[in-house]
Amino acid sequence: MNRTTRVTRALAVSVLVLGLGACSAESVDQAVGKAVDKTVDETYEVTYEVTGTSVDEITYHGGGGEAMEPELETVKSPALPWKKTVELRGIMPPAVMPLALEEGGADVTCTITYKGEVIKEAKGEGMLTAGGCVAVSPIVG
Fold this sequence. Notes:
This protein has about 140 residues and is α+β, with helices and mostly antiparallel strands.
């Protein structure tokens, strides 16, 4: 076999391998894109609960806004125990944040439940109880 034929064959094999690799990468990109689209569009329900004493307000993600910039909803002077089920979308994190400003201290607990299972719980005591419960979207991962 002469040198020109060997170089031509090596070049043909290289082009074939690169072409197949590009095809595979494109297929993988398409599959990932479809999975991301599904995750972004998929909805899920969570239930927020706040118990304790003397909560001045509760702020939570109610499903509006963008996934990474959710609109906050607020309930002022809520009756406790407080419970709310909301529908969220995609990677939007479930979050509920009670705020208590009682001088003697407040004993506040918040929980986030998904499909009957608590995915986040937090307890706070003191003059200012903030931070609450924030979880990762249960449909991610």
